[in-house]
Amino acid sequence: MYDFIVKPIRRAVAAIVLTVFMAQVSPVSAAPTPGDRCKKAGRERVTAAGTLRCQSIGGVLRWGLVEGASGVYKVGDVGPGGGIVFYVAPSTFASPGSDCASSCRYLEAAPARNDGEPRLRWASENNQERSVRTAPGIGSGMANTIAILKQGGNSGTAADYASKYVNRGKTDWHLPSIRELVELFEQQDVVGWGYMGRTGDVAPWFWSSSEFSKTAAWYQYNLFLSGPQSSDGPKWDSHRVRPVRAF
Description:
elongated; 247 residues; alpha+beta; 28% strand; single chain
């Protein structure tokens, strides 16, 4: 009688206790979605939307899309190079010198630096009155950067810094063309501006790789109240640098 009645009851009770215990020690959390806040930088989760990584976006730790399930990105996603996607082209474009070559679709900006983007000259002293004949359009930034460095003697300049930037194993970063830089400024609330955003720097000047004349180049700035503005300045001026890459 004992084995017939008591043992089954004890087994049932033990099973209930085990189930309750496992539920307590192994809580199941809902899968995050791109843009959700996260706590540990660098952590990755594979979800239905694709692979997400916990990364600082606009100064806040959020889940960013590392690689979409369908290979599709949108503005604000984390790009393959760990930057923030700020431009999605309506069709593919060419970026000679970039890994994507003639099949590029996106532009991503290097993550904002908490210590502030560096201020550098556009050209070295020997090249400040020499024309490079760079272009202004989307996809021109990498070719412009290469052309600037081919002058020789431009070590330590804006183009040199951008070309040497490496993030998440990607080395094909460049100084953006003026049109690429305009698109970047249009999405400044998405990409963030690191140190500057906390100090009230309302007119940060950023170099583009597009030449205006043999002694000047285009730059972009954000003037308080009037919004993003483009202008030109002498190549010996020092302005901030934000590397970007096409993919």
